[in-house]
């Protein structure tokens, strides 16, 4: 990389605002002030028909609160919040108060900065180093965070996770599940623990986080407890298809809890498992032959490519072929679903892509993660990642999948009248 293209964080002591940042911060201050003013005007207009005992308008402006700074990604932005007065607080119904949804009374950091905190923690920055880190990112006036403040934040994140775990699922209908066990060892307190994750696609094609719990070596019992908890909270109907690694205890649990669900083995996991049984000199060539199977346009073409792989490698590399053959039907299940969905359901990529960055961050955490800290951090990070998830292609087909409409080679089959 050329020297003039290197970008590095400034040290806190050398931080200086540039004109562009000043313009952005000034613009942000004006936009924020305008938005809050509009909120106040709407609040007053909504109560314009109310009067006090003297016949005066009851709800009126009442100056401003002292200026405060909101820490944002472009530094501190100063803002004066308007005040609203109720001239007749003793009237029936009680005092009419104003609370800004844009600028809550105790807000000190924007949500983008709030999401930065768990990221910094997982990056390996200790509680005592947050002040310096935030100063390098946001400027010398960034408020320092003490160890006790970080402790309170982690407790808050844990409370949010617990509340999320209790949410009602009775109105939900999920079509696809992606399941995986994500290890963070040696960052977890116990090296046999992992995070069990289920991401789902609903009937409109939106991806959702369904389950995040800690388990024991991806055991069937741990997965069963998670699935039963989902069912207890209202998810009576299981998915039409579940996608996961063949080694998971998830499959045994799924058959016991949602027995009608069809199964698709992840081709990324399967490819890695098969290639591990082959010499490195053959892996690139074999990977291409495996690719020919799951990228085939029809089930018949996939079966032919499957048979070729077995014949080509079976004599000398029987262990590699055995790992492939044992899941033959479950590797090709996606052909019974809409072709528009194939790229989504052939692998567990929705989980893998999300947790790639989470794994990188937890690896750099200096201290061992407790169960609560790991779950809270993963929960916060995956909620942040969720905003970038894209809708499934061919979402209009999901209703047909739910109704049991048959698909062959990804094409809807029309039943002709006798």
What does the model show?
- With 418 residues, the chain is α+β, with helices and mostly antiparallel strands.
- It folds into three domains: 12-86, no CATH class; 111-159; 174-400.
- Helices cover 43% and strands 15% of the residues.
- The chain contains 15 helices and eleven strands.
- It has helices at residues 19-46, 111-122, 130-138, 147-165, 220-232, 250-257, 267-275, 280-294, 299-313, 318-325, 328-331, 342-345, 349-363, 371-386, 398-403, and strands at 59-64, 68-72, 75-79, 82-86, 174-182, 193-202, 207-216, 241-244, 262-265, 407-408, 411-412.
- The strands form four sheets. It has a five-stranded mixed sheet, sandwiched between helices. A two-stranded antiparallel sheet has the order 1-4. It has a two-stranded antiparallel ribbon with strand order 2-3.
- Strand 2 (68-72) and strand 3 form a beta hairpin.
- The radius of gyration is 28 Å and the shape is elongated.
- It starts with 18 loop residues before the first helix and ends in a 6-residue tail after the last strand.
Describe the structure using short key phrases.
5-stranded mixed β-sheet, 3 domains, two-stranded antiparallel sheet, alpha+beta, 418 residues, elongated
Number of domains: 3
Largest sheet: 5 strands, mixed
Spatial separation of the terminal alpha carbons: 70 Å
Lateral strand order in the biggest sheet: 7-6-5-8-9
Based on Cα principal axes, name the global outline.
elongated
**Computed CA radius of gyration, to the nearest angstrom:** 28 Å
Helix-and-strand structural type? alpha+beta
N-to-C SSE series? HEEEEHHHEEEHEHEHHHHHHHHHEE
Count of individual helical segments: 15
Please provide the count of β strands. Answer: 11
- Residue stretches low in confidence (pLDDT < 50, at least 5 long) are 1-16
Strand content: 5-15%
Mean pLDDT comes to 80
State the helical fraction.
40-55%
């Amino acid at each position: 990389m050329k020297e003039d293209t290197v970008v590095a964080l400034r040290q806190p002591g050398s931080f200086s605002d540039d004109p562009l940042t000043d313009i952005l911060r000034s613009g942000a201050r004006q936009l924020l002030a305008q938005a809050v003013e509009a909120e106040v005007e709407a609040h007053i207009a909504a109560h314009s028909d109310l009067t006090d005992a003297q016949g005066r308008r009851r709800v009126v402006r009442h100056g401003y609160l002292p200026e405060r700074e909101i820490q944002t990604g472009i530094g501190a932005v100063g803002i004066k919040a308007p005040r609203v007065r109720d001239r007749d607080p003793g009237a029936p119904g009680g005092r009419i108060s104003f609370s800004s949804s844009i600028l809550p009374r105790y807000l000190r950091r924007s949500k983008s900065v709030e999401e930065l905190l768990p990221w910094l923690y997982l990056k390996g920055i200790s509680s005592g180093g947050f002040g310096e880190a935030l100063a390098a990112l946001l400027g010398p006036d960034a408020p320092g965070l003490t160890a006790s403040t970080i402790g309170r934040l982690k407790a808050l994140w844990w409370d949010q996770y617990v509340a999320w775990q209790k949410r009602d699922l009775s109105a939900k209908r999920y079509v696809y599940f992606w399941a995986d066990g994500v290890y963070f060892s040696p960052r977890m307190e116990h090296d046999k623990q992992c995070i069990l994750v289920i991401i789902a696609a609903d009937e409109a094609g939106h991806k959702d986080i369904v389950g995040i719990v800690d388990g024991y070596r991806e055991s069937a019992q741990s997965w069963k407890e998670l699935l039963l908890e989902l069912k207890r909270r209202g998810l009576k109907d299981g998915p039409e298809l579940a996608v996961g690694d063949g080694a998971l205890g998830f499959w045994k649990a799924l058959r016991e809890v949602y027995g009608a669900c069809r199964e698709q083995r992840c081709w990324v996991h399967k490819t890695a498992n098969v290639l591990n049984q082959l010499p490195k000199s053959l892996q690139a060539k074999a990977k291409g032959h495996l690719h020919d199977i799951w990228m085939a346009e029809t089930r018949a073409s996939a079966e032919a490519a499957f048979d070729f792989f077995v014949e080509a490698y079976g004599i000398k590399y029987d262990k590699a072929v055995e790992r492939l053959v044992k899941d033959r039907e479950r590797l090709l299940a996606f052909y019974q679903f809409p072709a528009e969905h194939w790229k989504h359901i052939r692998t567990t990529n929705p989980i893998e892509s999300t947790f790639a960055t989470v794994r990188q961050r937890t690896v750099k955490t200096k201290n061992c993660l407790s169960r609560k800290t790991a779950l809270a951090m993963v929960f916060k990070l995956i909620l942040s990642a969720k905003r970038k998830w894209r809708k499934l292609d061919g979402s209009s087909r999901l209703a047909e999948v739910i109704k049991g409409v048959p698909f062959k080679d990804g094409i809807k089959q029309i039943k002709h009248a006798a």
